[in-house]
Write a structure and sequence with these properties.
Layout: H1 12-18, H2 23-42, H3 46-61, H4 66-83, H5 91-100, H6 107-124, H7 132-142, H8 148-167, H9 173-183, H10 189-204, H11 214-225, H12 230-249, H13 256-266, H14 272-289, H15 297-304, H16 315-331, H17 354-361, H18 388-400, H19 406-422, H20 424-428, H21 431-441, H22 447-464, H23 488-503, H24 505-522, H25 525-536, H26 542-558, H27 563-571, H28 575-588, H29 592-601, H30 605-614, H31 622-635, H32 641-646, H33 654-666, H34 671-681, H35 686-704, H36 709-724
């Protein structure tokens, strides 16, 4: 510093003391400056005051010499004390050089800068709020200072500034938010702790509505929630908890839509605490905002669906994700199907069966947990459009994902089922793309997945095609049979299903019966058997056709789901039942034994006997004998109770007995042979049955003359006849 330079109104002694390396001398100089400035205040000499501050700033605080900088800092603090309430007029000039010293390499000097600023702020109080951003910026840097003394000094200043903000109602939150948004992404632990502490303070001030600006800082808060420090994570958790309480209190003022995608991102976090917290927020958002969240459904499902397959290690996340999934599903309503998408063909002419929809909805198995927002005036349902294409795309991706868990796949299939129920017209255009993967899902190892995989396409068929079909050209594999309640789309589904069974024989063996039974529950069983029989009639792979017919026949004869269909075929009283029998018979001829069993079911015993007579011309293989063995076992089942009772009426059912004896002659000496042989031994002798009938008639006459002698004689004659036979 140039000793010849004029520093007036500062005296040479003050200048020398400010440059001294001893703190005591610099303090004496500061007292002199305070006295001098007070005189200028009394004289109302603004120019002199500014000149003193300028000298202390430029020549001392910003000097190259460290002791001069220390003198400048204590001198500026002295000026502020002397100015008192008038310090607010000079705050910019007082604060800026002090903040510059926050970046000094000397830790002692940074500490003195904290001390000087503390004194300036303490005097100015609320007047420093217009300069809050620069103060906050400087403090955020000192919060991460490696020197403990500097950090301690910054904490004192930080507490003072928080007190001022809490007491004042003039805090400019709007101008502060951009700085907060920037600083919240700091990776330094101490800086993060500093940020969270300020958010908690601002949130506690009644006059400051930080909730309006939550979308600006929510992402940063979730970033901080993943900090390695338990203390910081706890502080952040508390801050997020306070915000969530405020959201529940005032949902109408919350910007749900602006925060939805932020939650979607963090619901997919690898950190368990972040994911659980974000999922809890998502649950509340869906329940509070209702249909406002529908445009973000695809993102929400992307985050939620994988969580549904979590194990007990993440059971809390699993539980919340389940609620999110169920709540979101409840938001999709039939009205979403009424608005046709622009530029895309609608299906407005297709009728909808309301009763059918209600009955199908009972099978959804969707539990509660979703807040009904249909009557909420704060959230308009009509202004929200369901992004169905995005949802279907996400569901399709999860179905194609080989690594997706079982519960995730089940949830995806339930979603598809639900969408087909609620928005059938819009879902129809996705059916062609979904059918292949749904058919593939039928081969899933889980019974529940396979059952749910059958729901979506069958619901589509029920909802979209209640009208009669139009029959195509004969011989075309894409045409439908003449059953009036079937349709070409249904027929196409059956063709694809049989193709999959043909290409995946293991699927047919292990799950074929289960899949067909599920379809019979969901659709018309008669249509299913009619269409499959019609398709198999043109099947070129005769071995597959025989196997498939055998599978269908076993299902027909043993499944409780087909009880009514069996009764219909047993009597053949209606033209429809006779038409079905003819269709089945033509296809059942792929397998001789199943054809005989169909004749037994429909009580065509003479034809069954004629067929068995022809078996002598066939090559009797082990597989053939196994099928005969299984047929014998079926005859002993409850389904054929009526057939076994008809054996009592030998006179009326001679061909039934002959057919059974024919089967007996086909069998080798096996357990099935013994079983059928024992059954046939129970068939009564025709002559004995005739004698018993005669005896019954005679006994009736005896009852009329039992008190007469002739009656006694006749009774003796009857006893003799019976003994003779």
């Amino acid at each position: 510093m140039n000793p010849e330079k004029d520093f007036s109104p500062l005296t040479p002694s003050i200048v020398r003391a400010l440059n001294d390396k001893l703190y005591e001398k610099r303090k004496v100089a500061a007292l002199e400056i305070e006295k001098l400035v007070r005189e200028f205040v009394a004289q109302n000499s603004t120019a002199q005051i500014k000149h003193v501050i300028l000298i202390l700033s430029q020549e001392f605080a910003l000097s190259q010499h460290p002791h001069s900088r220390k003198g400048g800092l204590i001198g500026l603090a002295a000026c502020s004390i002397a100015l008192g309430k008038d310090s607010g007029l000079y705050l910019k000039e007082l604060i800026e050089p002090v903040l510059t010293c926050f970046n000094d390499a000397d830790s002692r000097l940074r500490y003195y800068a904290c001390e000087a600023l503390y004194n300036i702020v303490k005097v100015a109080r609320g007047s420093v709020l217009p300069h809050f951003n620069v103060l906050f910026d400087g403090l955020s840097k000192l919060a991460a200072d490696p020197d403990p003394n500097v950090k301690s000094g910054s904490e004192l200043l930080d507490r003072l500034l928080k007190d001022i903000v809490t007491e004042s109602n003039k805090f400019d939150l709007i101008s502060f938010i951009p700085l907060l948004r920037e600083r919240i992404y700091s990776n330094n632990q101490y800086a993060r702790q500093f940020i969270i502490s300020w958010i908690l303070v601002l949130e506690s001030v009644p006059d400051i509505n930080l909730l309006d600006y939550l979308p600006e800082i929510l992402d940063g808060l979730f970033q901080i929630l993943g900090d390695n420090s338990k203390e910081i994570r706890k502080m952040c958790e508390v801050a997020l908890g306070e915000f969530l309480k405020e959201i529940k209190k005032n949902p109408s003022s919350v910007k749900f839509a602006e925060m939805a995608n932020i939650l979607v991102i963090h619901c997919q976090a690898s950190d368990d605490l972040i994911q659980l917290t974000a999922m809890c927020w998502m649950r509340e958002f869906i329940q509070l905002a209702g249909r406002v969240m529908l445009p973000y459904s695809s993102g929400i499902l992307t985050a939620v669906l994988p969580c549904l397959s979590y194990d007990d290690r993440k059971k809390r996340i699993l539980a919340v994700a389940n609620v999110c999934n169920q709540s979101l599903m409840k938001l999709v309503i039939p009205e979403d199907d009424e608005v046709a998408d622009e530029g895309k063909p609608g299906l407005a002419s297709l009728p909808t069966d309301t009763d059918q929809e209600e009955s199908l909805s009972k099978q959804e198995g969707v539990s509660g947990g979703c807040l009904d927002t249909s009557g909420d005036s704060n959230f308009s349902s009509t202004s929200v459009t369901l992004n169905l294409d995005g949802i279907v795309q996400v569901l399709d991706c999860h179905l194609h994902d080989a690594g997706a868990g079982m519960m995730t796949r089940i949830a995806v299939l339930k979603w598809l089922y639900h969408l087909y129920i609620k928005t059938p017209r819009k879902m129809f255009r996705h059916t062609d793309s979904l059918f292949p993967i749904l058919l593939k899902t039928l081969s899933d190892e889980s019974d529940e997945v396979s059952a749910d995989a059958a729901l979506s396409p069958t619901v589509s068929l029920r909802v979209h095609f209640p009208q009669p079909l139009q029959v195509c050209a004969k011989g075309s594999m894409e045409c439908s049979p003449t059953t009036p309640t079937m349709n070409s789309y249904f027929y196409k589904f059956m063709i694809n299903l049989l193709k999959r069974f043909s290409s995946e024989r293991k699927l047919l063996e292990t799950r074929g019966a289960f899949i067909i039974r599920q379809l019979c529950l969901l659709l018309n069983a008669e249509n299913i058997f009619h269409s499959m029989a019609d398709i198999l009639l043109r099947e070129e792979d005769l071995k597959f056709a025989s196997t498939m017919v055998h599978t269908l026949n076993t299902i027909l004869l043993t499944s409780s789901e087909l009880f009514q269909l069996r009764n219909q075929l047993k009597d053949l009283k209606t033209p429809e039942s006779r038409n079905l029998f003819c269709c089945l018979y033509r296809s059942w001829c792929h397998n001789p034994v199943t054809t005989v069993s169909l004749c037994f079911l429909t009580q065509n015993y003479k034809h069954a006997y004629d067929l068995i007579q022809k078996f002598g011309d066939l090559e009797v293989t082990v597989d053939f004998l196994i099928e005969v063995d299984k047929l014998v076992q079926l005859i002993e089942c409850p389904i054929f109770t009526y057939l076994r009772l008809q054996l009592l009426d030998v006179k009326s059912n001679p061909f039934l007995i002959r057919a059974l004896y024919g089967l007996l002659m086909l069998l080798p000496q096996s357990s099935a042979f013994q079983l059928l042989s024992h059954r046939l031994q129970c068939v009564p002798n025709p002559e004995l049955m005739q004698a018993a009938a005669a005896a019954h008639s005679i006994y009736s006459k005896v009852s009329l003359i039992q008190h007469k002698r002739a009656g006694r004689m006749l009774a003796k004659r009857i006893c003799w006849i019976i003994r003779k036979h």
